[in-house]
Amino acid sequence: MRSSGNKKNACHVASASFINDVWAWDFVHSPTVEGRTIRFLNIVDEYTRVCLSIKVGRSITSEDAIDTLAGLFSMHGVPKRIRCDNGPEFISAAIKNWLGTLGVDVLYIEPGSPWQNGLCESFNGKLRDEYLNQADLLGEADARLKAKAWRDDFNAYRPHSSLGYLTPSEFARRCADSAPFAARTPLHQHTEQPEPSLVSQPNLS
Question: What is the mean pLDDT of the chain?
Fold first, then answer.
């Protein structure tokens, strides 16, 4: 299945205006010490810059991605839009159908245009420079543990000039405190509430 993407979906065109407006996700790859590749699926809220998840695995399928999103939706609510490239996991029918059922618009960027997903690419660069290029990854469990420590530090202890020199976590807390109650309710939709069962992984058989 192909998705050509659209320059109108670029982050500088369809930018995020509030918390849970646009999430961005992308993959980063790195070798472990024995030379085998390990994958990192990064998911970021563009408005707050909070890294919502770094999923680590030798293989991360579209089904794994759905499972990760379902957990995040339960914790943080359902975003209005998700920005991504045209990787096979992101354009799978399973992901498209599931997100469509929940009313989430997918903003596919143009192929070969990573700058159109610039906020996530910036995060990926920091992850690579400050973690992946600095650490020996002994295996999947070690990479997962170190990624969590780096993510916690990024969210809680890294002030961003674009956030008024607040950390992403503090900025997100202030956004949540100022939001209407309905917008803070988990699984809140911008129109209707989905059935709770829709947030579980769909039948992919």
Answer: 86
Residue 183 has pLDDT above 70, yes or no: no
DSSP category for residue 148: H
Residue 73's φ and ψ, nearest 5 degrees, are -60, -40
Burial of residue 173, with CB atoms counted within 10 A of its CB: 0-12 exposed, 13-18 middle, 19 or more buried: middle
Query: 186 versus 153: which is more confidently predicted?
Result: 153
- pTM score: 0.83
Question: 68: Cβ–Cβ under 8 A, 6 or more apart, which residues?
Answer: 41, 43, 53, 55
- Annotate 161-176 with DSSP letters as a single string: GGGTSB-HHHHHHHHH
How many Å apart are CA 67 and CA 180, to the nearest integer? 28
Q: Where are the alpha helices (DSSP H) in 38-115?
A: 62-76, 93-101
Phi first, then psi, for residue 122 (nearest 5°) are -65, -45
Number of Cβ within 10 Å of residue 135's Cβ equals 15
Mean pLDDT of 5-20: 87
* pLDDT tens profile 53-71: 999 999 999 999 999 999 9
CA–CA dist 90, 96 (Å, integer): 8
Residue 144 one-letter amino acid: R
Q: Report the relative pairing of strands 22-31 and 81-84 from DSSP bridges.
A: parallel
